[in-house]
Amino acid sequence: MILLVLSALTLAMAAGASMAWADEPAVTACSLPEGWTEIARRQPRYVVFGELHGTQQSPAFIGNLACALASRKQRVLVAIEQNARDNAVLQDAWRLPTARFGQALRLVGWNGRKDGIASEAMFGMVVHLHALKTTGLPIDIVAFNSDSAQEKHFPHLAGQGAHEAAQAENIHGATIRGRYDQVLVLVGNIHARRARHGEGAGSFDFMAARLAALGRVVTLNTRYAAGTAWNCLAKPGVTFTPGHPPPSDAIECGNHSVTSNSDLKRAPFIGLGAFPGEEPDTRYDGFFWLGPISGSPPLLPGE
Fold first, then answer.
1. Would strands 217-225 and 227-234 be described as parallel, antiparallel, or unpaired?
2. Which of 41-55, 113-127, 249-263 has the highest mean pLDDT?
3. How far apart (Å, rounded) are the C-alpha atoms in residues 148 and 103?
4. Residue 287, number of CB atoms within 10 A of its CB
5. Which tens digits make up the pLDDT trace of 216-240?
6. How many CB atoms neighbour CB 261 within 10 A?
7. Domains of the chain
8. Residue pair 125/49 in contact by the 8 Å Cβ criterion
9. Cβ neighbours of residue 275 under 8 Å, at least 6 residues apart?
10. 44 touches 281 (CB < 8 A)
11. DSSP of 164-217, one letter per residue?
């Protein structure tokens, strides 16, 4: 166990307390989760963590892992599912001192978003990582989610293939610009799938599969015990017209109950292969277990 300087926000998040970011860092500890050694033996270029958006536990898990790796002198890049068009502003903020970082970060992709990608816990993780960086630990960050302009570079790809390809391109581009020992990608678990979606002309590869063509990938699906997650879901009975955006009143964002068939009653850990008691899931190389989950609301409520 290695004592490190982390942000006060991270301490609040780990305790499940109400979120309130602070400029002054506090002292806490981080350690490698059980199972990481097996991941490291594979020497992956990218480790993709497919999460359920809107929990406190998933960003805390990645923040702890990045902390532990960087403490061992490994240069770490953490890739987050914020829009790549905001990445230049994020990099400018990343160079700021601790006292100015939190306010600058609020301008990068959080304002007005109601989903779990813009949660208090995600914000806390990034503040945490920046606090570690200011102490001298080798941690960088990149926003990699694609937008419609970038997706036009892939007109030959069907369905959401262009979106997936653009995500992979952004992560790979950031990777080759730095000399990283570990690249940790936190993304919705659909994008973390290895398996090709669909058949024939309408099929496409998810982001993790696109990354696998650029470097060795280990991709992990989130698993958890029952709890809650802050996300945006279709209201019961609502129907959608293919090819058209959903009506504004058809989506409900909030802290929703999440069920689970399992409770391992274990601390968070990583496992390769099948989840205990289940058949192998060929879409992923393994899983990361979070235990009971709790929802994290948006940092800045939408208008």
1. unpaired
2. 41-55
3. 28
4. 26
5. 999 999 999 999 999 988 888 777 6
6. 10
7. 31-235+249-292 (3.40.50)
8. no
9. 223, 262, 281, 287
10. no
11. HHHHHHHHHHHHHHS--SEEEEEEETTTT--SPBSSGGG-B--HHHHHHTTS-E
Residue 7: alpha-carbon gap to chain centroid: 19
8 Å CB contact between 82 and 265: no
Q: Please tell me the pTM assigned to this model.
A: 0.88
On the 0-12 / 13-18 / 19+ scale of CB atoms within 10 A, 220 is: buried
In whole angstroms, give the CA distance from residue 215 to residue 168.
Answer: 11
Token pair of 286 as six digits: 């393994």
Residues 286 and 294: their CA atoms lie apart, in Å, by: 22
What amino acid is encoded at 26 in this protein? A
* Dist CA 84 CA 173 (whole Å): 11
Q: What is the pLDDT of residues 133-156, one digit of tens each?
A: 999 999 999 999 998 888 888 888
The residues pairing with 277 across neighbouring beta strands, listed in sequence order, are none
Q: For tokens 């879901």, name the residue.
A: 233
DSSP string, the chain: -EEEEEEHHHHHHHTTPPP---SSEEEEEE-PPBTHHHHHHT--SEEEEEEPSSBSHHHHHHHHHHHHHHHTT--EEEEEEEEGGGHHHHHHHHTS-HHHHHHHHTTTTTTT--SGGGBHHHHHHHHHHHHHHHTT--EEEEEEE--HHHHTT-TT--TTHHHHHHHHHHHHHHHHHS--SEEEEEEETTTT--SPBSSGGG-B--HHHHHHTTS-EEEEEEEEESEEEEEEEEPTT----TTSPPPTTSEEEEEEEE--S------SEEEESSPTTS---TT-SEEEEEEE--B--BSS---
d(CA 13, CA 22): 12
Query: Residue 79 half-sphere exposure, CB side, CA atoms within 13 Å?
Result: 31
Cα–Cα distance, 55 to 32 (Å, whole number): 20
Separation of alpha carbons 98 and 142, rounded Å: 18
Enter the tokens of residue 194: 């290895």
State in Å, rounded, how far the first CA of the chain is from the last one: 43
